[in-house]
């Protein structure tokens, strides 16, 4: 059986101190999760990461374990754990908690769905392994990529770090120039989001539709929402104003909710982007028709992060 405990910050770690200090034969695993933004799409990404780690733990620890969930949502994979002089927003609070638990001997395994969830900087990854993994005898698991980086084998960390450094060198930025495969050409998953419609929907069968174009009336509402948010409005205020002005919701109702506003703000399609098969943001086939420059997407993410 897996006992799952969420640890969101240092206060949570203190509250669960008794559980963390328990020694009853069950292994202590830190499941680390990270997303780059607070978009609606990332809700599925978080659950996907959890499920991958959970499935791995069920196989690796059939006798059971305590799985401590530690996350940074949203946070850049290039940010370090807290060091002297770093201010809020300059480091990852979740990663800081993880490093503290490892150094105190309260968790013995670190598990992540992919190594880039832990670090998108080869330098940071090397520091983490050298400071927290090797000297403390901790095992690091990158579930979807390769076997455990066991403390008894120095070749595995070296190999993985070399592969990661090569991968990062060829794609440091989060948004790459174009889709790498047919799967990522245009917006082809599900139906177009609010503000968009299939291109040539009347003449092309649904299964073959690829390109999308702005739906003029709804796209104007999207622009209004984004501009109001950047100008300082909160999701609640914007929802109230749209409701007051009798603007129909994406579903045709009359009452907007903060969740609806957040979903519009965080939809990458409005900024010319789509999620590729591996979750990376890439430029879609509709890029030249985007409602906002892709840099606005990062601006929206930063505002959410700053406001908490």
Short synopsis of the structure:
By secondary structure, the protein is of the alpha/beta class.
How would you describe what is shown here?
The chain has 308 residues and is an alpha/beta fold. Strands 1-3-2-4-5 form a 5-stranded parallel β-sheet, with helices on both faces. The chain is elongated. Helix 3 (41-60) links the parallel strand 2 and strand 3 (65-72). The protein folds into 2 domains: 2-169, Resolvase, N-terminal catalytic domain (Rossmann fold, 3-Layer(aba) Sandwich); 175-307, Alpha-Beta Complex (Hect, E3 ligase catalytic domain fold), CATH 3.90.1750. The two termini are 34 Å apart. 39% of the residues lie in helices and 14% in strands. It has 11 helices and 10 strands.
Radius of gyration: 22 Å
What's the β-strand tally?
Answer: 10
Low-confidence stretches: 40-44, 147-155, 168-185
Strand order of the largest sheet: 1-3-2-4-5
Order of SSEs: EHHEHEHEHHEHEEEHHHEEH
CATH topology of the largest domain: Rossmann fold
* General shape: elongated
CATH class of the largest domain: Alpha Beta
* Known CATH architecture of the largest domain: 3-Layer(aba) Sandwich
List keywords for this structure.
308 residues; alpha/beta; Rossmann fold; Hect, E3 ligase catalytic domain fold; 2 domains; 3-stranded mixed β-sheet; 39% helix; elongated
């Amino acid at each position: 059986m897996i006992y799952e405990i969420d640890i969101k910050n240092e206060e949570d770690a203190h509250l669960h101190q008794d559980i963390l200090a328990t020694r009853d034969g069950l292994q202590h695993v830190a499941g680390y999760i990270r997303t780059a933004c607070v978009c609606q799409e990332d809700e599925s990404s978080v659950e996907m990461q959890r499920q991958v780690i959970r499935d791995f733990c069920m196989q690796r620890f059939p006798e059971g374990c305590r799985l401590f969930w530690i996350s940074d949502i949203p946070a850049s994979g290039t940010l370090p754990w807290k060091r002297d002089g770093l201010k809020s927003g300059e480091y990852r609070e979740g990663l800081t908690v993880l490093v503290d638990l490892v150094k105190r001997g309260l968790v013995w395994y670190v598990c992540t769905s992919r190594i880039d969830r832990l670090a998108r900087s080869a330098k940071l990854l090397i520091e983490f392994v050298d400071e927290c993994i090797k000297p403390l005898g901790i095992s690091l698991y990158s579930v979807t990529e390769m076997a455990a980086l066991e403390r008894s084998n120095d070749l595995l960390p070296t190999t993985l770090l070399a592969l990661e450094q090569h991968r990062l060198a060829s794609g440091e930025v989060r948004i790459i120039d174009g889709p790498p495969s047919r799967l990522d050409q245009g917006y082809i998953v599900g139906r177009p989001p609010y503000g968009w419609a299939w291109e040539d929907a009347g003449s092309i069968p649904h299964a073959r539709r690829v390109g999308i174009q702005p739906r003029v009336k709804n796209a104007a509402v999207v622009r209004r929402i984004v501009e109001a948010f950047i100008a300082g409005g909160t999701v609640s205020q914007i929802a109230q104003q749209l409701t007051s002005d009798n603007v129909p919701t994406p579903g045709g109702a009359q009452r907007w909710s903060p969740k609806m506003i957040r979903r519009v703000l965080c939809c990458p399609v409005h900024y010319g982007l789509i999620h590729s098969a591996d979750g990376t943001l890439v430029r879609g086939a509709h890029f030249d028709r985007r409602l906002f420059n892709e840099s606005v997407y990062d601006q929206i993410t930063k505002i959410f992060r700053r406001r908490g």
